[in-house]
Amino acid sequence: MDKLATDFAAEREAMVERQLRRRGIADPRILNAFRAVPREAFVAAEHAHLAYGDHPVPIAGGQTVSQPYIVALMIDAADIRRGHRVLEVGSGSGYAAAVISRIAGRVIGIERLPVLAAMSRERLRQLGCNTVEIIEADGTMGWHEGAPYDAILVAASGSHVPSALVEQLAPGGRLVMPIGARDDVQRLVQVTRFADGGVEHSDLGAVRFVPLIGEEGWKDG
Ligand code: SAM
Fold this sequence. Notes:
Layout: H1 5-20, H2 28-36, E1 57-59, E2 63-65, H3 68-77, E3 85-89, H4 95-101, E4 106-111, H5 114-126, E5 132-136, E6 149-154, H6 163-167, E7 169-180, E8 186-193, E9 199-207
């Protein structure tokens, strides 16, 4: 039987409480952003019943929409605030971009797969997320036209942080990205760029992401 909007709303609230708040996500702006975005709208109808599970959910192109807690952890670590310009590399379904848009000023999502770029653009339009722009491109090069960014989130894993992304980070800006071996467990890394151009890295723990494929990422296939 199909779920009703009220069922999804109850699942969404339970997700925010059990998966985010009880695990230490305390910022009300982040919790409210997750309360405002219908995750079921970003997955195929046959996966809608999985939308609020404590795990990634399959999307088109063999990709996934990340586990809610990991999206929240990345947003928290990137210190995204009202008015910020944010770049999300690997915007996939558009879910994380929609959540970020509830906190930040402007969001640019870059997605390499045309099917996901097109689907996410349409979904975000339908949901009225008009501060999000989706670009179909290789995000390992960043998006120079929109730089500098106060925060950059990379939703796919690489062996290193692409240099273009660090260059496009504003002074005081933060980048969060999974770093490590392809198809294995990686470390979620927070990079802070200082006004003098120096950077500091912090380790936020173990994660597992799909590979970042591109010029400064892994090879396709
Ligand atoms: N945040 C996304 C969401 O809410 O659906 C998660 C998407 S998934 C974990 C990672 C995405 O990164 C995939 O859609 C994949 O196609 C994309 N990707 C991988 N390499 C990329 C690259 N170089 N540039 C842009 N997107 C890339």
